[in-house]
From TrEMBL:
Hydrolyzes ribosome-free peptidyl-tRNAs (with 1 or more amino acids incorporated), which drop off the ribosome during protein synthesis, or as a result of ribosome stalling. Catalyzes the release of premature peptidyl moieties from peptidyl-tRNA molecules trapped in stalled 50S ribosomal subunits, and thus maintains levels of free tRNAs and 50S ribosomes. PANTHER family: PEPTIDYL-TRNA HYDROLASE (PTHR17224:SF1). InterPro entries: Pept_tRNA_hydro, Pept_tRNA_hydro_CS, Pept_tRNA_hydro_sf. It catalyses: an N-acyl-L-alpha-aminoacyl-tRNA + H2O = an N-acyl-L-amino acid + a tRNA + H(+). Coiled coil: none annotated. Its main location: cytoplasm. The record marks 105 as: Stabilizes the basic form of H active site to accept a proton. The active site is at residue 40. SUPFAM superfamilies: Peptidyl-tRNA hydrolase-like. It comes from the Bacteria. This is Peptidyl-tRNA hydrolase.
Length: 198
């Protein structure tokens, strides 16, 4: 498969480093220390398992690391406008929606669970809504990290922006494994392995 490059250092005359990728993996969350440990940021946490040298991309609202043909990205926007990063980054890389993997929090799964799917509704998730709007399709891959529904009397925004409870390292690791399986062995294999996990 031909690779498309993003050029760094648009205004430099000397050698220009490039990004090349056949896959785009995006961990969803909100930037800043205030949100780092919240339920809404579990996608960021999983991305941190996969990439540790994210760098800014000129002209695109994201920090990115490319390794072995995969671009790992965090948007520098807030959750509700994540598409402003994902759309331009996917376009610049030439990565089509079926090779975009979005890792995100999921209210409709119990805390600790991880599920993998292609497409589907956004179920009220504003980050996914923004991505769908900017890609023009829902047909991208999702790694869904369960955070559960809020208890009675707690509003959804308050729930997703509150700190995670307990040790979620196993869930974070499982989500990262799901991404690696999709890239290396395909969606079906990833579903078989991840959905069988406890």
């Amino acid at each position: 498969m031909a690779k498309v490059c993003i050029m760094f250092g648009f205004f430099r005359r000397k050698r220009t480093p490039t990004l090349e990728a056949e896959w785009l993996v995006v961990g969803l969350g909100n930037p800043g220390a205030k949100y780092a440990a919240t339920r809404h940021n579990v996608g960021y946490m999983a991305l941190d398992e996969l990439a540790d040298q994210l760098k800014p991309v000129p002209g695109i609202k994201a920090h990115v690391q490319v390794r072995d043909g995969v671009a790992y990205a965090r948007s520098t926007t807030y959750m509700n406008t994540t598409g402003e990063a994902v759309g331009p980054l996917a376009q610049a890389l030439g990565v089509t929606p079926e090779r975009i993997i979005v890792v995100h929090d999921e209210l409709d799964l119990p805390a600790g669970k991880v599920r993998v799917k292609l497409g589907g509704n956004e179920n009220g998730h504003n980050g996914l809504k923004s991505i769908t709007e900017h890609l023009g399709t829902r047909d991208y891959l999702r790694v869904r990290m369960g955070i559960g529904r809020p208890p009675k009397g707690v509003a959804v925004p308050d729930w997703v922006l509150s700190p995670v409870e307990g040790d979620i390292s196993a869930q974070v690791t499982l989500a990262a494994e799901a991404v690696q399986l999709i890239v290396s062995e395909g969606l079906g294999k990833a579903q078989n392995v991840i959905h069988a996990a406890r």
